[in-house]
Amino acid sequence: MPSTASTPGALSGIKVLDLSRVLAGPWATQMLADLGADVIKVERPVAGDDTRHWGPPFLKDDDGNDTRQASYFTACNRNKRSITIDMAHPEGQALLRRMAAEADVLVENFKVGGLAQYGLDYDSLKTLNPKLIYCSITGFGQDGPYAERAGYDLMVQAMCGLMSITGHADAQPGGGPLKVGVAVIDVFTGLYASNAILAAINARDSARNGSGTGQYIDMALLDVGMAVLANQAAGFLATGQTPERAGNTHPSLAPYQDFRTSDGNVLLAIGNDGQFARFCAAVHQPAQAQDARFTTNTGRVQHRAALLEWLQPLMQTRSTAEWIALLQDKAVPCGPINTVAQAFDDPQVQARGIHMTLPCQTGNDIAQVATVASPMRLSATPVSYRSAPPTLGQHTQEVLQELGLSEDEVHALRTAHVL
Question: Which Pfam families match (predicted)?
């Protein structure tokens, strides 16, 4: 089960200055926060992170009414402390430099060169803190002809080719390129960024390295989009043939797709010849596994049309539940195509404690915030859930006093609209 214990996490003692917003950067820093890092999220006064306003849907208050807090923000900002600083103000810049001098990691997703004017770029900050690991996340990277362009998940899904292999073929009903239902390029960029940051921490602190210095990390959504094409990219590079959309079928496996049943749909994901033979035995047609066209996966892929001519009417002879009951104890992967609501209601999801609620401690109208538990399960240094996503500026006073400012100094900064 997920841990809410206060025992030190794997990244306890690591301080992260989070200047990022929206999804890719906050996803990376939430992973670090879940692992125990102290993540200080810096937001614009009054407005805050853009995703605080990306609704509906909005969080509900205790009476079931919409608040002005979009649920989007809660997906990637738990376990963080929020402060508000106007970095366009010279005193705000000075505060951020003081914080960077004490940080292990800084994450930002401003346009290329955008922080140099504030003295908050890597070259400026590494002189203050040679141990600083500085991660920049942009749409297209720090160099190349597109470096100055803004990059968004949807744009990159289109540019990297992901949309061209997602959806049904043009000739089929509903055919045409589709985006994935989640901003997967942003999420994957957050995952790659957090991995790069952890590698840089290890390199800095490793006895083998011995330098004790940080480094600069250049993360680009387009680079990640190309990387996560995975086998589709490998297939193109090996053959020169451009992959095409094929709906829910798999280009290299068969049968590996959805099928109509007598009352809905079911997913059959046969990944090897043994599974196919067990499927044929289960439906009392073992001869199909001996058919020269179907004995091997390569044959089944090459004769996909003939395979489906047999399978599609067969799969409609039972209900979805009947297929799952028939195959679940025969090591033949088969499962339902759930809605999100059905997925959260699944007994395995419930047993793993995926749906969690975290208490708010800010005295607002929201007492609990629902969240999805981290999938990282560490036995000795488990993920902890210390706090719900913060309200805007919730920890400004606390963090600045830790930095050495007095209450009067913080009050003066508020009066000057620096905070």
Answer: CoA_transf_3 (PF02515)
